[in-house]
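Below: protein 1.
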Amino acid sequence: MGKKVLITGGLGFIGLALARTLVRRGMTVRLLDNLSPQIHGLDPQPELGKLLPNARVEVMPGDVCRRRDWVLALRDVTSVVHLAAETGTGQSMYRIGDYARTNVLGTALLLDVLANDRHGVTKLVLASSRSVYGEGAYHCTFCGIVYPPMRSPESLAAGRWDLLCTDCGCPVRPAATPEIANTSPASIYAATKLAQEDLVRIAANALNIPFLIFRLQNVYGEGQSLNNPYTGILSIFSNRIRQGKVIILFEDGQESRDFVHVSDVAEAMALGLLGDGGDGLTMNVGSGIPVTVDTIARSLKRHFDDSSALVMSGQYRLGDIRHNYADISVISRALGFSPQVLLEEGIGRFVRWVKTQPIAEDGLDRANRELIERGLMKA
């Protein structure tokens, strides 16, 4: 097709999955990545080895916080998929400058180059996050769909995990969250993702560059970093199991999320790049199915043939949401997207891949201590 796509954060597991998907469709990709040790470990060579020699793949080391790297990376590309970001809700609450610099300044520099330098970019895709919503949508028997605010520290301290309707005070149950829902970031990470959305939406419209914003749910799958103790619940739990440690669940383990396999995310992005049906839209990317953290832990244990007990700790992190799952009707209509990988199949694929990898250091205890010391996590 003669099109070259720049994928920032291209050596992350979403970036690599997307690169393979696009190459299969005859496109050429350039992968910009800073090879962060927290994600890739101290030796990035195994990550680079994931890419079979392919004339359609170019790897470019670089940092989205340096304008000159953007200038070099954007040469002769027609589309940009901006995945590069600092991730991890808890960590964002005390590495505020790092998250703002990478996520917000990095995006601003991209747009600054597009506004002031000659380029051939005709489409811009931003990977945002379901975290911009805060709590998801809920259904009240008496009031219909409601959007409760974040749980208070007092409620969490008392172990009142579930939410109540803000209008009538009755219990509510989770509902699919649509893109028109209120945005209410509860972490610095979420705030930076929402800022990215605003920057892209405003600048792309002004520059007349078609754009798409994908609000990703909890993405998992083969290739996910096993080194990062701050994000990626399946990787974190897998590390614990492989080291003979028990899985410790926050709250009562019944908080729910929407888990979507990385191959489905890559397909959604490819559909957005190759057509114009989603141009100008903000779209959820998920499975549309809520799954409890307890369910994820038990499924992993089955696949690893692990018989240890789960520990319901009653611990909690300030800013954590209770429930959120996606309404995916917009992306279905606009792009014809439908997730193909069922959760149990996806977990099986993930576990088979994990078993081929070296056992990573379990940094969860250290990460939790950092949160406790800063008053962001309570027992």
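Below: protein 2.
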Amino acid sequence: MILGHSHPAVLDAVERAMRRGQLLAGQHTLEVEVAEALVRLIPCAELCRFGVSGSELVQAAMRLTRAVTGRTLILRFEGHYHGWFDNVLLNVATPVEQSGPREHPELRLGSAGQTSSVLGDYLLLPWNDLALVEQLFAERGGEIAAVMTEPMMCNTGAILPAPGFLKGLRGLCDQHGALLYMDEIISGFRLGLSGA
């Protein structure tokens, strides 16, 4: 879809690939070639893992951050979309009157049918306010496994990061032993070949 709806070059490439095989049980040489290309193109990528959907890969990233750090809390931001699974569909489009105070927004489930038990796994702040992130890390930095963010808010409005915001997140994560997870399922390759 990044290249346009039903672009002839894409359809031709898909047809050629499908004639070579459609379901392969193990790794395929094309998987290795794509992984090597991604690692070359994306400056921070050292390894590559493939999945079926962005929602699935968000789950893998959260599990990895918790395994590496031994911590459970993940800081996320209002309005950011990290998939539709029950444990991450939170605060994507919360009405302002239900958001709570700006300094301590309330975590909200995204739809009926989700269980509130997942709310204890996350911390929530407004996007683009580094001072609030610094304050939270000063209070709870030793509990935070990761900061999960879109590098540019895309799902609920195209909002650029404030100058220095992403760099500040990187520094805080490094200082407190947390991981920084850039969710680029929407922005990846659309904003630049090397990602946002």
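The mean pLDDT is 89.
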